[in-house]
Amino acid sequence: MIEKLCIIGVGLIGGSLARALKEKGYCKQIVGSSRSADHLQKAVDLGVIDSYSTDMQEAVKGADVIIVCVPLGAMEMVFSKIKDVITPDTIITDVGSSKQSVVDAAERAFGEIPASLIPGHPIAGTEKSGVEASFAELYQRRKVILTPLENNNPEQVEKIENMWLQTGAEVRHMSVQHHDEVLAATSHLPHVLAFGIVDTLAKMDSQQEIFEYAAGGFRDFTRIASSDPVMWRDICVNNRDALLKVMRNYIEDMELLYSLIEQSDGEALSELFEGAKGIRDKFNDMLQG
Amino acid sequence: MIEKLCIIGVGLIGGSLARALKEKGYCKQIVGSSRSADHLQKAVDLGVIDSYSTDMQEAVKGADVIIVCVPLGAMEMVFSKIKDVITPDTIITDVGSSKQSVVDAAERAFGEIPASLIPGHPIAGTEKSGVEASFAELYQRRKVILTPLENNNPEQVEKIENMWLQTGAEVRHMSVQHHDEVLAATSHLPHVLAFGIVDTLAKMDSQQEIFEYAAGGFRDFTRIASSDPVMWRDICVNNRDALLKVMRNYIEDMELLYSLIEQSDGEALSELFEGAKGIRDKFNDMLQG
């Protein structure tokens, strides 16, 4: 049970968590905070949170769990604001898409990595954003990755794990570094590539016509290029090292494909395509889930 | 009206055309041909074609329209087989994904580009293949590109255009070269990239785990990596020049993105992402259609 949960940033992610926990009766009180009183009032009207304060220090006071659901670029500012009003018993967790950068932001803000910081990342989301788009079932059968730190208290880690389990999510633990590598490969790289291909085609002479002849494969392939540019800028900058590593591997693979096509090496091409198809098909059921 | 239509290769594409034309009563007779009597008998049983012969010369005899629906790599073989049994009045058309290579294959087989060759390419398909997957509505509101050649007879071009209009498709004309450029950008490049990213991730140490954490964006992004490897090998080799050109542009764009991320140039990154999102959103309705 959580006595007082404070959600900083009440959008799709924070709002859906609040709705799920309310359904389970897992929190006595859920308080929201952000810059916009209008957005927070809407969250109250929708029954997502119980109350709010745009004064972050006011909002977190007495909370046993604070969950920070702001863009990666705003994490340090939030940590700096709350650091003087929290106690060692206050658990701080987050939902950021890269974890090392969150730990670094906390270290800069607190002067050390707080023992009560338990970084987390739910692998869930939709095309939409904002509290209006939130729903209690968002995390059902989704994975939530926690990246506990060495100095964390195991009981506090368990409390955050139990919180996520209430939402129907599967909770996994991994190291900060491993999280950042896995997410760079499975999420950050595809987004960069999707933005990249749309940019490439947009630079072509017959841009308008090109999109006109694009079929279903292209539509699916570029859907994620409609994602929020600012969020993805933040992710690229905050998970830079892991992303650059996998981008370099990918560019080298593209150069390999380029030379196989240049040499009309049909045998090597079909071998590579077959291998990729085999893996994609093998994981199809997993990806459907 | 078509007196006798001969479809060489009765799968999803040829079968769906046959079904649509039968519904409209646009052909007096539809004859199929391919290597497999079993497949052809199934097409007869399904009511897709009226009759068949595995002897291609026998099948095309007396046809006013022959449509070649075989993989790009088999086009020259088909042209060589039929060249001695057709007359100048026999229209030859096809459904290949690249057009210059089809013209080249015809030139090699016939010793010159036949005046009755009217290259075509319906921009339609599903994940499935085979005549069992064919359906009359496949081409409704889809685009069919014809790339008429200089020495074509306009009446014969009109006849092929009318055939496709029966299926509910929109017919567009463009040059062979322009078709190959547009398709390289909108279809061939995305497929190569999708095979490429799955290959890149498969080479990583924690392959299994990586796919486990992949979410919806990744699923859509790599769906086309489940496509037929042999067909895509053929397309890469047959549309080599146009594909290499757009691949080079894309790799250069990836290198640009790499250095922007390396330099943590948030401003340039969000500008590029915003531009791509704007274009993708603008064409969203078009791509939904």
Essential attributes:
2 domains, 6-phosphogluconate dehydrogenase C-terminal fold, 289 residues, Rossmann fold, six-stranded parallel beta sheet, alpha/beta, three-stranded mixed beta sheet, elongated, homodimer
Question: Which helices and strands appear, and what pairs or packs with what?
Answer:
2 copies of one chain form a homodimer.
Chain A: E1 2-8, H1 12-24, E2 27-33, H2 37-45, E3 51-52, H3 56-60, E4 65-68, H4 75-82, E5 91-94, H5 100-110, E6 117-118, E7 120-123, E8 143-146, H6 154-166, E9 170-173, H7 176-202, H8 207-212, H9 216-222, H10 229-238, H11 240-262, H12 266-282, H13 284-288
Parallel strand pairs in A: 1-2, 1-4, 2-3, 4-5, 5-6, 8-9
Antiparallel strand pairs in A: 7-8
In short:
The first copy, chain A, is of the alpha/beta class and 289 residues long. Chain A is 53% helix and 13% strand.
Characterization of the model:
- The structure is a homodimer of 289-residue chains.
- Chain A is α/β, with parallel strands linked by helices and 289 residues long.
- Chain A has two domains: 2-174, NAD(P)-binding Rossmann-like Domain (Rossmann fold); 179-288, 6-phosphogluconate dehydrogenase C-terminal fold.
- Helices cover 53% and strands 13% of the residues of chain A.
- Chain A contains 13 helices and nine strands.
- Chain A has a six-stranded parallel beta sheet with strand order 3-2-1-4-5-6, with helices on both faces. In chain A, strands 7-8-9 form a three-stranded mixed beta sheet, covered by helices on one side.
- In chain A, helix 2 (37-45) links the parallel strand 2 (27-33) and strand 3 (51-52).
- In chain A, helix 4 (75-82) packs parallel to helix 5 and helix 7 (176-202) crosses helix 11 (240-262).
- The longest helix of chain A is centred in the middle third of the chain and has 27 residues, at 176-202.
- Chain A is elongated.
- Chain A starts with a strand and ends with a helix.
- The model of chain A has no long low-confidence stretch (mean pLDDT 93).
- Chains A and B meet through helix 7, helix 8, helix 9, helix 10 and helix 11 of A and helix 7, helix 8, helix 9, helix 10 and helix 11 of B.
